[in-house]
User: Fold these one by one.
Assistant:
Number 1:
Amino acid sequence: MAGGFHDGSRSLQDRFDTRGLADRIDERLVSDAIDNNDRAFIQERDMFFLATADAQGRPTCSYKGGEPGFVRVLNPRTRAVPNYDGNGMYLSAGNIMVNPDVGLLFIDFERGRRLRLEGTASISDADPLLGDYPEAQFAVRVSTRAVYPNCPRYIHRYTLTQASRFVPHAGTLTPVPEWKRSDWAADVLPEHDPARDPGQRDVLGR
């Protein structure tokens, strides 16, 4: 935000008499930089939601997960995250290639806190951080335009019961997703996809 209210926002603010509240939140809580508290919160997370849109403005939202700390805050205005193997559609990353404006939502479901970050993303398969991320295809860096907390009142409380077994780790064979071994997918997998011949890798449903 930081002055990013448009006619749509203003019309609803005026309809429900929240313009003063919105301006106060924008003034006091919205920043163009990630402070130390926000940095700690972001780097403690093991997941976030990524919103992107294509060149025509058609949006999509995706879930991104990894080990706690897989999102790095490099400086007050830059954060980075690896892109791991997925379903091969590259909807979010493809959108970034044609429209770099992104939104990120970080949520702590146990303590009830959430943080929104908006900015401009870029993709690099030569990012120096890739050495820290086993099996990452490329890194996505986001230059921050706005970062701000959201009201936590509607966050349902959840606890982690099991971390994903598919998150890559150095020195460990990452399991193969069972769906890639299905008849409908197996013959169109990339040439070097380990699902073609799992060998000693586990094949897991989820």
Number 2:
Amino acid sequence: MDRAASATRRRVLQAAGAAGILTLGKAPAFAQAQPKKLVFAHITAEPESSAVAFAAMAKEVTERSKGELVIEFHGGTLLTKELEIINAVKSGNIAIGDPGGAAATVFPEMGVFLVPYLVASYDQAYKMFNGQVGERLDKQFQDKYKLKVLFFYDYGFRHFWNSKRPIKEPKDVRGLKLRVQPAKVFADTINGFGGVAVPMAWGEVIPAAQQGVIDGADLPIVNILALKAYEVSKYCSMTYHNYGPSSISISGMG
């Protein structure tokens, strides 16, 4: 994780320079009179795992720049949907945003990494996204979306939770109604296992599970805990069936 954190810090500084904002070093004399404020929107609030990390990042950047660069983080309060956030970044209405766990829905280029069991370990993932694969994606995002990738991050490997039965092998998914994000690769995965994929935005998931509209879903273990999915399910199966990469983007590339 130390290597990933180091790479993340490098990407933040590189992206800041590319986007024409102040870096964490000494600012030019003409820019010292007024802090540069960057609004950062994220889909969910703390204690969701990435919201905790981003709030800490915003505080750290602001303090280490001695107030010359102020990141104002909004978790779950500014915009309510992943696509709304990214469109606001594209238009320049906010400076920084991310698609949360719906990266493949917002950026189809990310869908290939969601193929079940394609990514075998965190070490493999970090080598890809902190290496040539990440660099190519960053260039694609700049060319196609006019967005600069500050850094890639992940929610960890995803695991199934449901109210019906434990999942020990693929056949145990058969017949289960499982929520998926609105990206084809997620639905194909569940349907391929013999389950029934139910595309649904995250905000609807817990009520749908309470009402029996779905039997369960999948989440990284850290967010099964943080988002209290255990309150609407009986079983959590550590399947590691999908690695969930995402990215933080900044405007200013147009």
